[in-house]
Amino acid sequence: MKKKNVGTLLLFLILGWLAGAWIAKLLEPVKALSLLTASTVLSWSPQADLDIITYDITIHLKLCLLSLAGMITAVWLYRRL
């Protein structure tokens, strides 16, 4: 049995997410597919002022059903390796 790398899985997930998002972007003008292309934005903004260090990070994750399908396909392809 081959040992699989977690970094490879993360790369597959990001590429699947990106591919699904690009397909959703291409299909946005099609009104019949609006259920698949409608996206939800998840935001996370950690920040701190520790007197000697201050940071403020904002992360926005945009998810839609096609990007989720891309990630599921990526996991399936990863398992087939």
Automatic annotation (TrEMBL):
Q: Where are the transmembrane segments?
A: 59-78
**UniProt cross-references to InterPro entries, sorted A to Z:** DUF4321
The record's Pfam families line, in alphabetical order, gives: DUF4321
Sorted UniProt keywords: Membrane, Transmembrane, Transmembrane helix
| Descriptive protein name | DUF4321 domain-containing protein
Gene source species: Paenibacillus typhae
Organism taxonomic ancestry: Bacteria, Bacillati, Bacillota, Bacilli, Bacillales
